[in-house]
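Q: I have 146 residues here and want to know how they pack in 3D. Can you give me a structure?
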Amino acid sequence: MKMITRILAVVGCVAMIALLWLLILYLNRDGIVDFRRQAGVDYYYPADLKMMNLPRWRLTNTIPLSPDVAVKAAIRYANGKHPATTIWDVDRVYLEKQDDDGTWSYDISLIDRQSGRPFSVDVRVLMDGNIWEPTKEERKDHRGHN
């Protein structure tokens, strides 16, 4: 009987460690476990934006790209990546400062709730209306956002 108890205790510990590992691996930013998350990590490097001729924005000036136009750009992009999705719900819109020179971007989270297998897509829209495509490569200067 003692041997069975020990075996069950070991199996329970191994199962608990595996469960904790899965939770840590698949926990998204909002604290929700997302097992449908795509493999790999997306990296965004603000230094890459310095090479682009992006509109600069100061908080006291008119914003170069309004949130509604940014959301429309994000939806067009998501439709191109996921053509089977017909309706996107906007989950959140963040405005993020990328550097001290006045470079900003929108981080827009879209959710497909209609397909029967809901998933989300995060899209970064630059102040010129273009999409900021991530890279899969981590650089030595790993100050990129993921």
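Q: Anything worth noting?
A: The mean pLDDT is 82. The longest helix spans residues 2-26.
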